[in-house]
Structure to design on (741 residues):
């Protein structure tokens, strides 16, 4: 038997070119996600056998360029160098070829083994473009494969070509770009100071051009080695006489792109597309917003109404299965500890997870449709001006909206944000967006203590306070996390596409799997921890560790006019905020139906308001914490976020109670 | 009519050539990557309160209004 030869293929490309469709076609279900250490970027990998090879495909983040501007770009270029892929495949949208050639030129500088895939050939043809593939391939000096990924056309050609390139059967003569009289002498001058062809794996010429572009990461890399300090200092000299080198280089690349495009493509004078006509309506100054409201209300309802229905079904089904399968077994369990662990720990933990999954799945489907169709970019454009009022990016809109339903999908919806920094801010403010569970508890308690008109005012106040905190926290983080030069929107408006069902199903499947694997284990562990707190050492809530903790914290509570019972309920609320009411009925030893009467007898309206203020502000629930951990991939931020909301809740609780008692006495 | 005006002030349908991009390093480079460099042909598709939608090198981008004020275009 011939041993299987293993090779690695990196997939590069700009956003919105159908790269994930190509990746899905190549790997099918044999794919998994991997987080890049310490960052919010997720990379997909998948495997396929072909012609005696085991090919590992790595789906790099979509980038327009390979500068150090965004973390995605840094990851893409580091992988091309450090990951040592045998072949790099760039997926291009043939119908917007010009946009993608800019990246092609940069890839050619970084790797010799490039294959270009021209996807969406059918759309290019519909637009009236005639692409001379042989000529394009000759100019670029690398293979060019036409493809219509949604129909599966061209995949086999690509696989064959990968093998040919690996086996050295194709002559590659990658295009070498000359940057003209202004730049080349500078490159030569710097190159004379370096002996090696490569520095830490990067081609020297590429590094020097990046240095002239002022690439921060490259400058750091060169500075670290004593041999190259002089290279950096002569760059600093050059910068004094030619300050806008990066623009000169970029515009030379664009000129090159124009030339290549003109040589290899014939197109009608005016490229009118259907997308353009759709955008006249969708981005219209008057009707754009109502359309957006319509689209997102539908999305919101789909996720939360349908999601909740499915969650209830899943939960009941789980209950039935439990009754059916293990109730007999449970009767036999006489050890009270064991029984309590199963009944109050393990089963509720599974219940929490099982009821989460349908909602998360619905959300991920809706999210994939929005992204795949191209509508997300339009929504970001329309909402940008409003989101700036909250100190957030236009693309963070979906995240805030979903947060009103549940913070878990809200935080997952930050994936569309390109920058690690913007994404981190959006993730960290999301817990302050009041979710449906908190709003539910709020409505119940407010209506107990206030007359209808006052109740409405109190609710408006609590929601406004939450949004104010979102804005203030956003502004604070904006200052605290390395300040960027600008936070304004620059976004491509991709062509609209009818989303492919297969693609969305696969995308959702992979993401749900990742959620279950990474977030659910943490949720499970935390539910068991809370069970432990309220069971040990006495099996009675009132004397448990949890209650002792509540009593220990009572001095803090007194600052807010709250007793230990209220504090214990709040700790219970971490399980899930809708559990607060159930927890109270346990602690106050009443049936849930008569909880209202009891609360009215022990709390003043001011205490109720204080309690609600705290409830609205501190970390929504364990699942939210778990998903913050998953999405930031950092315990530090997870911890900071939790501490921050707790402190904020404490301060606001104290303020509310003390200022309130001046007026309401 | 060969005025040089900021992109933000161009009317829908107007075309021109970028002559200058103002601002810090990051801004200039980011705009450059998406094709908004001196010499690039642009055509404004829509422009009202909010981001400006503009054609550049064969695709459309939306640019925040504040950024669009820093891109100077010779209108043709």
């Amino acid at each position: 038997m011939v041993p299987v030869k293993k090779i690695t293929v990196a997939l590069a490309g700009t956003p919105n070119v159908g790269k994930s469709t190509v990746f899905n076609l190549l790997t099918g279900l044999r794919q998994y996600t991997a987080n890049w250490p310490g960052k919010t970027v997720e990379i997909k990998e998948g495997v396929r056998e072909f012609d005696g090879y085991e090919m590992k495909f790595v789906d790099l983040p979509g980038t327009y360029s390979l500068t150090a501007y965004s973390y995605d770009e840094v990851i893409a270029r580091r992988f091309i160098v450090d990951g040592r892929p045998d072949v790099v495949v760039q997926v291009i949208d043939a119908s917007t070829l010009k946009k993608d050639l800019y990246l092609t030129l940069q890839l050619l500088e970084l790797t010799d083994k490039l294959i270009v895939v021209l996807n969406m050939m059918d759309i290019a043809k519909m637009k009236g473009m005639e692409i001379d593939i042989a000529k394009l391939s000759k100019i670029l000096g690398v293979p060019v494969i036409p493809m219509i990924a949604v129909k599966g056309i061209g995949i086999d050609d690509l696989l064959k070509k990968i093998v040919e390139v690996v086996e050295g059967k194709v002559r590659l003569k990658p295009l070498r770009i000359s940057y003209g009289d202004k730049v080349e002498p500078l490159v030569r001058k710097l190159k004379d100071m370096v002996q090696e062809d490569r520095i830490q794996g990067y081609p020297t010429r590429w590094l020097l051009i990046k240095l002239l572009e002022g690439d921060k990461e490259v400058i750091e890399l060169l500075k670290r080695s004593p041999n190259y300090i002089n290279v950096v200092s002569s760059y600093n000299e050059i910068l004094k006489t030619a300050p806008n080198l990066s623009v000169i280089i970029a515009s030379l690349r664009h000129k090159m792109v124009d030339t290549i495009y003109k040589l290899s493509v014939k197109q009608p004078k005016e490229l009118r597309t259907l997308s353009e006509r759709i955008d006249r309506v969708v981005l219209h100054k008057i009707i754009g917003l109502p359309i957006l409201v319509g689209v997102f209300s539908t999305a919101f309802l789909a996720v939360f109404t349908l999601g909740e229905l499915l969650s209830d079904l899943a939960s009941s089904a789980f209950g039935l299965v439990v009754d059916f399968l293990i109730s007999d077994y449970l009767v036999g369990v006489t050890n009270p500890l064991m029984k309590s662990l199963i009944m109050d720990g393990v089963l509720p933990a599974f219940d929490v997870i099982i009821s989460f999954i349908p909602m998360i799945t619905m959300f991920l489907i809706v999210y994939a449709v929005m992204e795949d169709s191209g509508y997300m970019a339009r929504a970001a454009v329309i909402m940008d001006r409003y989101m700036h009022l909250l100190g957030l990016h236009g693309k963070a809109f979906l995240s805030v909206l979903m947060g009103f339903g549940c913070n878990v999908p809200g935080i997952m919806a930050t994936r569309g944000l390109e920058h690690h920094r913007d994404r981190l801010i959006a993730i960290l403010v999301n817990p302050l967006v009041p979710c449906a569970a908190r709003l539910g508890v709020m409505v119940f308690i407010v209506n107990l203590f206030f007359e209808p008109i006052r109740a409405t005012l109190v609710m408006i106040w609590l929601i406004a306070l939450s949004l104010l905190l979102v804005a203030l926290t956003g502004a604070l983080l904006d200052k605290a996390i390395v300040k960027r030069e600008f936070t304004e929107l620059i976004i491509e408006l991709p062509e609209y596409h009818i989303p492919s069902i297969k693609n969305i199903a696969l995308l959702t499947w992979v993401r749900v799997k990742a959620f279950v694997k990474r977030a659910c284990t943490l949720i499970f562990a935390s539910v068991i921890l809370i069970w432990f707190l309220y069971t040990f050492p006495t099996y009675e809530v009132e004397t448990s560790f949890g209650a002792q903790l509540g009593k220990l914290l009572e001095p803090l509570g007194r600052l807010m006019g709250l007793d230990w019972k209220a504090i214990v309920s709040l700790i219970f609320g971490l399980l899930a905020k809708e559990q607060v009411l159930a927890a109270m009925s346990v602690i106050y030893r009443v049936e849930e139906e008569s909880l209202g009467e009891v609360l009215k007898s022990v709390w003043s309206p001011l205490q109720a308001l204080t309690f609600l203020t705290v409830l609205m502000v501190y970390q929504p629930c364990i699942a939210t914490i778990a998903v913050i951990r998953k999405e930031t991939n950092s315990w530090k931020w997870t911890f900071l976020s939790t501490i921050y909301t707790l402190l904020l809740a404490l301060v606001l609780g104290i303020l509310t109670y003390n200022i309130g008692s001046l007026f309401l006495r | 009519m060969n005025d040089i005006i900021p992109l933000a002030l161009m009317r829908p349908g107007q075309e021109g050539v970028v002559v200058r991009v103002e601002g810090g390093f990051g801004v200039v480079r980011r705009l450059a990557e998406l094709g908004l460099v001196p010499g690039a042909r642009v055509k404004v598709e829509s422009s009202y309160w909010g981001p400006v939608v503009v054609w550049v090198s064969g695709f459309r981008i939306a640019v925040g209004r504040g950024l669009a004020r820093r891109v100077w275009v010779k209108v043709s």
Remarks:
- The interface with chain A takes residues 21, 23-35, 37-40, 45-46, 48-51, 53, 57-67 of chain B (CB under 8 Å).
- Residues 31 and 37 of chain B are 7 Å apart (CA to CA).
- Chain B has two helices and six strands.
